[in-house]
Amino acid sequence: MIKGNIVNLKQFSLKDLEFLYKWNNNPEYSGKFEPYESCTKEELAIWLNLVKPEEFWYIIENKNHEKVGQIVGRKRDKSSIEIGYRVIPEARNKGYCTDAVKAFVKHLLEKEKFKKVIANTNPENKASRLVLIKAGFNEVGYREKGVKINNVWMDGVIYEITQKD
Ligand SMILES: CC(C)(COP(=O)(O)OP(=O)(O)OC[C@H]1O[C@@H](n2cnc3c(N)ncnc32)[C@H](O)[C@@H]1OP(=O)(O)O)[C@@H](O)C(=O)NCCC(=O)NCCS
User: Fold this and answer.
1) For residue range 65-80, what is the model confidence (pLDDT) as tens digits?
2) Rounded to 5 degrees, what are φ and ψ at 40?
3) Alpha carbon nearest to ligand 1 atom 35, residue
4) CA-92 nearest atom, ligand 1
């Protein structure tokens, strides 16, 4: 478990099946700027059984042990990893994501020894950009029509944080 100040991050497990099934089938969870892909409970259960300990898929829980979202890391190469996150609509604007990103980045840089953590967000995703800035990320690039999300090509702002930061 990774501990933050107001959230804990726990690796995905079969215990998260109901939560992930409910929210992955609700387009409000992914929002306007993240891909929405519905799934069946069976597909999700199979997938959860295949998640390996060395992968970076975490449920965000508040200190009352309520599941409020997810944060994930996908290795880009040996020394860098890209993160993504979602918080359920009723738990937004309480600082959960900022705390989760801070704790996750510290873990990735200090414990997992990645040299760089990357995040890519839509320029209009103000909440996500604020989270990254508050967590100490630097804006390093802009990609026009770089990602296709829900069948629409969208721009992306690239943020990074390194061990030196
Ligand atoms: C982005 C997201 C994860 C943020 O989660 P969160 O727990 O609400 O984030 P926090 O509470 O830590 O911080 C949100 C910040 O954005 C601000 N914010 C929220 N909505 C906003 C909006 N529509 N416009 C401007 N600022 C906004 C909040 O005021 C807060 O800033 P503050 O602390 O300075 O007041 C959440 O909105 C979400 O799940 N969105 C859908 C999925 C998504 O877009 N993921 C990111 C993909 S890169």
Assistant:
1) 999 999 999 999 999 9
2) -90, 160
3) 93
4) 8
